[in-house]
Amino acid sequence: MRHRHSGTLALALGVVVLVDVLRVFLPSVITIFGQAAATPAELLGVFALGWFVLAFAAPPLVARIGARPVTVVAGAALAGARLALTAAPGGRWQLWLAAAGLLAGLVWLAGSAARTARPVPGLALGLAAGALLHTALATHDLVWRGGWLAWTASAALVAAFVAGLPGPRPQPDPRPQPGTGPGSGPTVTGPGCGPTLSGPLSGPTVTGSGSGPTVAGAGRGAGGARAWMVAGPALLLAGMLALSPAVAGTAMSYLQGRAGTGGTPLFALAPMAPAVAVFVGGALTPVRGRWRPVPPAVLLAGTLLATYGPPRLLVVAMVLAAAGLGGCLALLDEPADGRQARPEAGRRRAYAALVGMLGFAVATVLHYAAYDLGYPNGWLPPVVAALVAVAALRTPPTAGRVRVLPRLAVTAVTVLVALVATVGHGPWMVIDNRPGPPRQVRLVAYNIRMGFGLDGRLDLDALARAAGRADVVVLSEVDRGWLLNGGHDTLHLLAVRLGMPYVFAPAAGPLWGDAVLSRWPVRAPRTRALPAVGAPTGAQALAVTVDFSAGVRLAVVGTHLQPPPDGGPVAQARAVAAFATGYAAGMPLVVAGDLNTEPDDPAYAEFIRAGLVDALAAARPLPTSPADDPREQIDHVLVSPDLGATDAGTIPGTASDHLPVAVTLALPAR
Question: Cβ(117)–Cβ(2) under 8 Å?
């Protein structure tokens, strides 16, 4: 690759591959190393951060043998790990392959930083391309898909990346600088003459990432190190909010829902087109003069709105964050100069890139560990945004800028891809048209553990098979875009496979909670936050009315109780029972989900005291956790006495760490 844009494209492709590996590594730490929450959160954090710390051996290696061989070898290892992950059967192999791929990717990034003084165009294009690929796949990554099509696409991506290794060598500036060129005279130096003026004898000017010639004002910043240091925080903000298609789908869901719940949107991925457009356009457009404070302010506004604003404004928050992040990258874009080609400058950039990625890891661990340890974490995304904003504002303005990529053309292509993906992934889910109300309903309650099985793989088809042809499905531990779990909208993906519209209610932030899916229309959704009583993870109760027509209705309440450290979830069970019976108001009632309580526990007795009966009684004992050796009866279906229950049981499988429970309910005669 020797085209003038080849360095930018090579860096962008590497970012896409590295993010692909990260989307496997992060959930593998939780589901495989974490052993279904059996491993302390502190140990999980140490294991995850250790790989980022190990990468700090890369800059001394670059200094010893050179950036080019380090970049080539590490890039090849990253590519090999990415392909191997597609074939990995899960389990320990997946964990160690992902960890090795991550380490190789970090070393490749350090080598690339040592060679590239102007990374912003490549980083911005890589983040946008990764987001568009994730959008085109409806957040279901190629790594998890299998089949010849996924293999072909993965091989093409990796081959394109390898073909660009290690990118072009830095080239001298082909154009004369101001005050140079024919007739400009030699460089003036000597005692009393002041500083040396650039001229034809001043030596070559080095470009970065295929960036083209230097312009006036270069060299006054941090030599590209500041932009490299922001790469990790930018990746975090893009994956958590600004460029996440899962967040886009969830945001559209809240616009469709009512009373704090999310419904099934028609075009779930629609926000991706404006988000990617303002991000790419902002990153490739110089920001000058009085406009310089605007992108940092917009980025902060977007992250604050996403964290503390109502879920219905999540679309606005996402687009604001994307625009602000792109603009901040533009502020960080410094043209390269000759001093940035020195070995010490390259080492500084390599260390800066690794410090930024370590910041990404620390922030990720801190943010998501809060849901296990119970401390507040809403402050963290705005703090990361503030750090990016400060770095952007501290970058000295340049008098001019050589454009690396055609801004309008790149923006137009990204918008077109996002729009095509939006239309292609409707979803086109409709309620079945059935003659009259049914006599009985098949209900399944399933804790899906964010979609990951005991082997650590995201197997959506296995989850769909476990649900079978249920008429109503109650889901717990539903993830709709946590970066820690790979940024998948598990609910959307599963609903498409089942062909069932859904109602979602958040329990721990807007992206994690419980859901009810139904083949019949649902009415009057309501959600009630449950008292924490010391439990670190949030909990709620979601109530919907399933309308079978002809006046036949069924109240369904889905929940996932969170026990406090020193006892059972008695207070939450009491709150759910009161909320459910009050909501039903005489309708037939079902309460289902992962209740984290055994049938003989005081918390379970709260439901019996409220007049509900055990719909699974005929099948007891009925352990559901862990899925491969069930010993605990903690997933339940309780019903009002007017509902008959037959054919109760569990459905074998390891698509989650719980087994689903299923029961057929006979509706009362009118």
Answer: no
Q: State the pairing for strand pair 502-506/512-518.
A: antiparallel
Q: Are 652 and 620 in contact (CB under 8 A)?
A: no
Distance CA 333, CA 109 (A): 18
Three-state DSSP class for residue 526: strand
* Ramachandran class of 499: left when φ > 0, alpha when ψ lies in -120 to 50, beta otherwise: left
**Confidence (pTM):** 0.90
The structure tokens listed for 238 are: 């893009």
Give the whole-angstrom CA distance, residue 399 versus residue 22.
37
Element (H, E) at 303: helix 294-308
**Pair 278, 416: CB distance under 8 Å:** no
DSSP conformation letters of 91-107: HHHHHHHHHHHHHHHHH
What span, in angstroms and rounded, lies between the C-alpha atoms of 123 and 129?
10
How many beta carbons lie within 10 A of that of residue 404, not counting itself?
Answer: 26
Helix 120-136 / helix 314-332 crossing angle, nearest 10 deg = 150
Q: What is the pLDDT of residues 604-650, one digit of tens each?
A: 999 999 999 999 999 999 999 999 999 999 999 999 999 999 999 99
CB 636 within 8 A of CB 603: no
Our CA angle for 541, 545, 550, nearest 5°, is 170
Chain segment 530-573, per-residue pLDDT in tens: 998 888 889 999 999 999 988 999 999 999 999 998 889 999 99
**What tokens appear for 209 in the block?**
């990432």
Instruction: Give the burial class of 183: count Cβ atoms within 10 A of its Cβ; 0-12 exposed, 13-18 middle, 19 or more buried.
Output: exposed
Contacts of 162 (CB under 8 A, 6+ apart): 75, 76, 79
Non-local CB neighbours of 274 within 8 Å, separated by 6+ positions: 319, 322
> How many helices (H) and strands (E) are present in the chain, helices listed first?
20, 12
Q: Which of 393, 271, 272 is nearest to 329 (CA)?
A: 393
Rg of the Cα trace of the chain? 27
Report the candidate in 517, 553, 548 with the shortest Cα–Cα distance to residue 444: 517
Beta strands in 399-501 (DSSP E): 440-447, 472-479
DSSP designation for 262? B
